Amino acid sequence: MTNAASPMIGLMAGSLALTAANSSAQAACPIQLAVYGEAQSGAEIDFTPAGSSATITNNFRMILDNNVVLDGIVMWTEGSAARPHGSLMYKCPTGDVTGEELAACTVWEGVVYSADDKGTIGLLPAEGAEAPKSLIFPDLGASLEMSAAYGPAGFSKVPSDIFVLKGCQE
Length: 170
Known about the structure:
3 helices, 170 residues, alpha+beta, 10 strands, 21% helix
């Protein structure tokens, strides 16, 4: 005997399976392919593989309004209190650059924190780890508002310190 509800149950089960597959696909996104967004300004962070660098553990770019792009790197400090130290730079010179030149174009520096969907705070993982649900860049907005990237020739919408996982690059 065929139940009239069977096709509907099959459709619902298929839909739930697809939703679960999409959720686990996003949950399984490695940090080096993660895309994060910030709601108040529309800013976005796109991570990219760090390549063969011995010191840089994460590469990313922050895209602000007016097509302003900041280049970001993360390097883990050493010792018993190791932390992921992030830097955001704007229009840095390329090639053999001095520390003074890097300092002049750095618009934010600090520890990059992560948070899961339960609110547990952690540290930004290195490449290969699963992308956390959100990232926290302490004092990002205040630092960027005082930078050369902000203003009439730069961006105008100051992001908050929290970015939420939006997706995964392929």
